[in-house]
Amino acid sequence: MRRLTFLAVAAAICAATWLSAAAAPESRPVASDADYAMPQSQEKTLDITMMNKPGLPPHIAVPPFVVLTADQTTQDASRALTEVLSADLKFEREFDVMPASSYVGVPSAQTIEALPYDRWTQLGADFVALGTVKAAPGGKFEVEIRVVSMKERRQSYGAQVTGSNLRRLAHTISDGMHKTMRAVDGVAMTRIAFSSTRDGERYGKTVEERSAKEIYIMDYDGANQQKVTANHSLNISASWCPDGQCLAYMTYQSGYPDIVLQNIFGQIGRSNPAHGSDSVHNYLPRISPDGTKIAYGSTLKGNAMDIYVVNRDGTNERRLTNNAASEGSPAWSPSGNLLAFTSDRTGTNNTKIYTMNADGTGLKRIENDCSHCDRPTFAPGLNGLLLAYSTQTGGGNDIEFYDLNNGQARRLTNGEGTNESPSFAPNGRHVLFVTTRWGKEQLAVVDIDGKNVRRLTELGANTYPNWSGFLK
Amino acid sequence: MLMKDPMMLRTRWTSVLCVTVLATVTFACGGKKPPVATPTPPPQVVADPTPIAPTPNQPRPPAPPPPQEPPPVPLQPLPADDITTKDLDTLNKEQFLKPIFFALDSDEVDAAGQAVLVTNAQMMKKYGSLTISIEGHSDERGTAEYNLALGERRALSTKNYLVSLGIAADRIKTVSYGKEFPFDPGHDEAAWTKNRRAHFVVTAK
Questions:
Q1: Chain A, nearest residue to B90 by Cα
Q2: CA distance B205 to B198
Q3: Among A136-140, A141-145, A164-168, A303-307, where is mean pLDDT lowest?
C-alpha cells in the first residue's frame, strides 16, 4: 500500500505539469477506477534531502567507482557501473548529472571524510556519489555506494550490492537513490517486450517473401535484447505478467491467430488459454494488473471481433461485448476495474475508444475527437483517469493523452513519422511507442512532457511494445 | 454432360475440337484447353462435377448481403486449369485464384471483387476437393492493431460472398494479417491499392 501511495503521488506530480497547462472548462461524469485514493496533496511528503536550488533537480557528480581490486575486470566493472548509473539517473530527470569534464582533477575519495567538500561545492555539486567496486568469488562484484550531501556533509543514501550482472547492480542503486532521495519509483529494473523482424526469418511456407516476427525482450534502456520465441511465424502484441516472469502474446504458429501464455525464465510453461482454432481467432491479449485474467479480442461467437475475458488457466471465458461491429485493443485500468477498448460501432469505418466495467456493464464512449483511435492504455495510478492512445493525424498517427476528468486532450508526438502503440512506464513518467521517424518502425521512449526522445532499437523493424510493471 | 451446357456453344472452339477435348478432359466446361493435350493424364476423380458458370437456365446463387446489382457473369474463358499437374506452391505463385481488392477502411466486396469471386467460385466448383485459405490484408495506413481487425473483416466478407455463391463454408479458412505482409512495399496510393486485398491460398487440391 505504501508503494501504491508513492506511485500515485509521484505520478500525479509528474502529470500535473502538463495537465495544469490545459484549462479545465467542465467536468463530466466519467467511469472512475475506485481502488486508488486520489492524492489529496501535491506535495512530496518524504524527507527530501535539501539541495542548492529548490525546485530543480540537484546537481550530482558520479565519478568513476573506485577500484579496490586492481585487475582489468574490476576496472572494466567500474567503467560499466559508472556509465550505467549515470544513464539511469539522467533517465528520470530527477538528478542533474554533472559531466565528468566539469570535475577533472578533483581527487577521488573512498570515505566521506576524505571528500574535498569545498572543491565540490565550488563546482556546484549538491551530491557526490562515492562508489567502490571489488572482485568477489564466482565472478561477482561487491559494490558499495554512498551518496553524500555537500551541504550537510553526511550520507543521504547508501547501499551495498553484490552480483555478476553489473547493469542490474547499477539499476538497483539507481532505483534506491530515486526512491530515497526523490520519492520516485524508478524503472531501471523494468523490461520491455516487443516484436522484431531482425532475424530475417521467412514466415511459414508461403510462396511470397514474408518476414516472420519473433517476440524479444530488453531492459528499459534498450540493453540486453533477447529473443523469446523462435517459431518463424508472426508473434506479436506481447503483454507482461505482473511479476515479469511470463508473457501473453499472439502467435500465428498454428496458421491462425491465437493467444499463448508463456513463461520466459526458468521452467518452461506454455498454454493457449483462449483456445483458438481455424475459425476462432484470438487477438491482442492484455493480462490484468493482478495477473489472474486475460482480456482479448476474439471471433468466438459471430463474425466480428468482440472483447472477451478468460482466466489465466483458460477457464471462465466470458464475452463482454456483443455487437456487429469490431471491438479490439482492450486495456485494463490500473485497478483492473475498467477496460478501455476500440470499436467501430458508430459505423463510419472509424474506431473510437470506449470504457466499460470489467464485467461488461457501464459502457461509455470517450468523447474525444480522435480518428481511428487505437491501442488505448491507462496511465498507472491517477485513478485510472488518464489514457494514452494513437490517433490519425494527416498521413500518419500520433500519440495523444486524454484526461477523463476534464476532457482535455494533449498530443505527445507531432507528426515525426507515424507514431503508435503507446505503453506507459510503470511509474507513469514515460511512454514507449512505435515510430517511423528514423525509417523503418523502431521503438522509442519519450517523457510525458514530450521531451527526451530516446531510440531503443536499431535492427530490423520493431513493433508492438509493452512495458513491464515494476520488477525485482 | 458437356453438350447440355449452352456455354459450350459460345466458346471459340469448334465442335470437332470439342470432341478431342471431351476425350481427354471429361469435365472441362468452356475451357480453352490447347488442342495438343493428348498426353495429358486424365484428371483425378472430381467429387463435384456440377456446371461451372450460372447459365440462363439455372437460378442464380443467393444474392450476397449488400443489395447490389448482381455482377455480370464473366464470359471470358476460364484460366488454364490443369491443376493436377502443378503443385500447390506453383498454383499459389501463379495466383490460381485471383485476389480481390478493397477501398480504404472498407470490407465491402465491390462489383469488381464480386466478378472475381464468381470466377473463383467457378473454379472451386469445378475442383470440388480444393480447399482454400482467404487472407485479409490492409495497406500500411492505420495502426497495426486496427488493421488486424480490418483484415479479419475483409477475409470474412470474402468468405461469406463465396458461400453465397454456393461454396461450402468448410472448404474455406480465413486469416487476417493486417498490415504485416504488404504485397507491394511502396508507400504510395499505387502500392496501397494493391495491399488492401483478400488473398487466396490453395491449401489442398
A1: A207
A2: 20
A3: A303-307
Distance CA B62, CA B59 (A): 9
Close Cβ partners of A402 (under 8 Å, ≥ 6 residues apart): A353, A366, A368, A370, A386, A387, A388, A389, A408, A409, A410
In A, minimum Cα distance to B170 occurs at A279
Nearest C-alpha of chain A: how many angstroms from B150? 8
| C-alpha distance from A341 to closest chain B C-alpha (Å) | 11
Query: How much is the ipTM here?
Result: 0.85
Q: Which of A154, A182, A210 is the last residue of a domain?
A: A182
Q: Domains for chain B: give ranges and CATH numbers.
A: 1-42 (no CATH), 46-52+66-204 (3.30.1330.60)
Number of A–B residue contacts, CB under 8 Å: 86
Higher per-residue pLDDT: B86 or A320: A320
Say yes or no for a CB contact (<8 Å) between B181 and A464. Answer: no
Interatomic CA distance for residues A203 and A234, integer angstroms: 7
Please check whether residues A364 and A270 belong to one and the same domain. Answer: yes
The winner for highest mean pLDDT among A105-114, A313-322, A377-386, B55-64 is A313-322
The CA distance from B100 to B136, in Å, is 10
Pairing of strands A127-136, A66-67: parallel
Is residue A10 in a domain? no
User: Which strand (E) or helix (H) includes residue A364?
Assistant: strand A364-365
Distance from B88 to chain A by nearest Cα, in Å? 9
Residue of A197, A283, A423 best to disrupt the B interface, most CBs of B under 10 A: A283
Question: Structural domain tally of chain A?
Answer: 2
Percent of chain B at pLDDT exceeding 70: 60
Q: Region A288-312: what's the mean pLDDT?
A: 94
| Interchain CB distance below 8 Å, A283 and B148 | yes
Domain of A176? 59-182
Q: State pLDDT tens for residues B42-94.
A: 444 444 434 444 444 444 455 455 555 555 655 555 555 567 788 899 999 98
* A145 compared with A51, residue with greater pLDDT: A145
Q: What is the CATH number of the domain that holds A271?
A: 2.120.10.30
